[in-house]
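tool_call: predict_structure(chain=1)
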Amino acid sequence: MSYVHWAPIIEGLLEAVWVIDPRTLRVLTVNASAARLLGVPRETLLGSPVQDWIADPQDHVYWQEWQAGIVQTLESEATVRRADGSLVRVQRRITPVTPDGGETVVLVAMQDCREWQQTCQQLEALLTELRAALESTSDGILVCDLQGHIRAFNRPFAALWGLPDELLTHQDDAAIWAHLASSVSDPTGFQSRLGELQRAPLLEAHDVIVLRNGRILDRASRPQLARGRPIGRVYTHRDVTERAATDAKLRLAAKLFEASLDPIVLTDPRHRIVACNPAALRLAGLDAADPQGDSVEALLYAPGRPDWLQEVDTALQAKGYWEGELWLRRREAPGVALLASWVLLRDGQGQPLHTVLFAKDLSEKLEAQRRIEQLAYTDPLTGLPNRLMLGERVGHAVRLAQRHGRGFALLFLDLDRFKSINDSLGHLFGDRVLVEVAARLQRCLRQTDTLARLGGDEFVIHLHDADRRAAEITARRIIEAIEQPVSIEEMQFTLSCSIGIAMYPDDGATLDELIQHADTAMYQVKERGKGHYRFYQADMNADLLARIQMDHAMRQGLERGEFMLHYQPRVELRTGRATGCEALLRWQRPGEGLVMPGTFIAVAEETGLIALLGQWVLDSAIAQAAQWAAQGRPLQVAVNVSALQFQQADFVQDVADALQRHGLPAQWLELELTESILIRDTDEALAKLQALADLGVTLALDDFGTGFSSLVYLRRFPLHRLKIDRSFITAVPENPTDAAIVAAIVQMGHALSMETVAEGVERPEQVQALLDLDCDHCQGFLYARPMPADALQDWLQQRSAEPSRPAAA
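tool_result:
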C-alpha cells in the first residue's frame, strides 16, 4: 500500500501527522491537524523540507542520519516552528514504516503540549493561593487522606500542638501522630476517637481536646469531598481555653463529659465535685445530683494510701497532671479499680480553675491478670495444676512432714503408646484423650491429693499423708481406671499406663528429686512390659547412670576407633566349603578388654546410637570385603541391620554409596534382617527390600522362628536366605520337636526358593542331623569362633589346603 493511500487514515487522527521521505527529507503528505499546528495550508507543507519546520539544532543532525540511511525510532519532546515564526513545544514520536511492496517512509506523530503546560501553570498558581489561604487563618488546620496519612497542615496547627522543628522540615506521619497523642491528657481516648472518625469518612464532628499543659482545643472534623465522594478529612483546631474556663459546665459537660464512655469527674481547685459524666455515674451507681459539692474523697479512695489526695494535689501544682490507680466507691457493689489521669486547668492569669479526672475501668485488666496467674499455675488443656503449683503444694507438704514426722508419696504416670494415638488420629484427638485421662485420675484421688500435668502424657500425683501401702492401692486403682475402654467420636480403644512411685523422705527431700526417682521407677516399668507400677529403688539410679556412661563411652569409642569387626565363617554343609562370613561387632574398651555385643547393643538401641554403629559396621565390612576381592580371594560378608538403621530414609542409598565407594560388587554383600523390621511397615519394607535386591545385594532373614514368622511376608519379600535361630539347633538331633521345626523351616525355605542357614552349630552330630534334614549352610563354634579379618584369611587358607570333604566328615 503506497503512502498516498494513508491520507484518509491519518486525516481522522487528533495528532498532527507528517509522512517524510527519508532520502530527500521532504514532506510527502500531512493531515489537517499538522496544518493547523503549523498555521499554514496543507499545500504549503507538501514537498517542503522537514528542516524548515524544526527549531532544535540536534534535530537537524537526527534527520541527516535518516538521509544517510540510519533508521531509528525516536519518542521525545521537541520544538517546531510555525509559519509566523513562533515556536510550539510538542510531544512527538518518529517511526519508520514500510508499506507492502513499497519503500520505507518516516511517520512523524506530534501532539501540542501548550494546553497541558497552561494547565500545569494554572494548577501551580491555584496551589500557591490555597497554601496562602491555609496559612492566613488563625485556626490550626490538619488535612489527612482516608487512611490517616497527613497531606498538609499550617503553621497555626504546628504552634497550637508545639510540633518540634524537625517535624516541620521533615514530615514524619508516625512521629507527628505520636507527638499529638503524647500531648493530650487522655491519649487512649484521643486515639480511639481518631479511629472512629477514620472509620466513618462522611461523619462531621466536634470534640474538645484537653492538652497536658492545661490548654483546651475545640476540634471540628469535616470530610473533604471531591465530586461528591470523600477523599480525606480536614481537622480545624481552635484554642478555647479561655472560653472553656468561663463556660466550663456548659461546654465541658456537653462535649467532653457526655461524649466520653470512660468516667470523667470535674472538680473545683479544692477538689469538690462540680460534675460527673454519665459513665462515672453509671459505674458508681449514682444519680447526677448525688455527688455534686462533695469532696472527691466521697467518690474515690486508695487502699493503703490515706494521704493519696495530698499526693495528687502536690503533683497537680508541680506538673499540672497526675497519673495512678484509684478505686471508685459503689453503693451496692464492690469497689472498681480505675486507672486515673488527673489534669489541672488554669485561667488566663495562670490561677487554678478546675481539675479534670479521666478514668479507665481496670476490671477487665484485673480479670486478665487473674487469668494470667491462673494460666501460670495450671495446665491450659486439662485445667490441672502445673509443675509450678505442684512445687508449691509439695513444698508445703514437705514442711508439714518435717513438722509432724509424716511422709507422703509421689507417683509419676506416663501413658503407654500414647504417641501412636497422636500420630494416627492427630493431636486434637490426643488432647481429648488426655482430658478424659485427667478426669479418670481425679476420680481415683482424694481432695487432699494433687494431680498435676507436666506436659504431653506425663502426670504427677502427690498423695498426701500416704505410706507405701496407700500408694500401692492408689496405683492399682489408677491402672484399673485407665484400662477401662475409651469411647470418643464412635471410636473405642483401650489405654494403659506405667507408674513409678517415690516416697518422701526415703527417696528424696525435694520435688525435683522425688520426680526424678519416680520417673526412674516408671522407666523400669516401661522396660519390663508396661501397664504396671513400681517403687523406686536406690540401685535404679546406678543402673541408669551406668547406661548413660556406657552410651557416652560408646560415642567416644566410635570417634576414637575402639570398635572392630570379627568374622565368623559360614560353611556349606554338603561340601564343607566356606561360602561367606558374618561380620560381628566387638568393642576394645580401654581398661576392660574386648567387650561382646550383648553388653552394649541394648544400650545402643535404647539411645539411638545403634544407627551410627550400624552405619560404621556396614561401611567397614564392605571395605574389608572389597579388600579381599582385590586380593583375588572374594568372600561374601553378611552384616546385621538394626530396625532403627533400616528405618532411615536414605538407608538404601547409603548401601549403594558404600558399595560404589569401595568398589565392591553387590553380590558379595549380604544384609541380615530381623522379622520385627519387616512387620513394622510392610509396604515401606517391601519397597526398600526390592530396591536392595535390585542392587544385587543378598537378603537374609535372621533368627527365623523366634518372632512372628508370617508366611505372608516370606512370600512377598525378595529374601534369599533363612537363618534358623540357634535355640532350635541346640537340641538337634536329641529333641524330635526341635528337629521337626528345623525340618519344616528348611522345607518351607526351599519351597520359596530360599537357602537355609543353621546358627550355633557346635557338635558334629548336629551337622549330620542338619545334613539329613537337607539344610544348606551352617555356622558355629564347631568350625570357628568369630575372628579378626587376618585370622579368617589364615583359617580359609588352611581349610582350602585340606582335602575337600563334606562338613560332617
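agent: The mean pLDDT is 85. Proceeding to next step.
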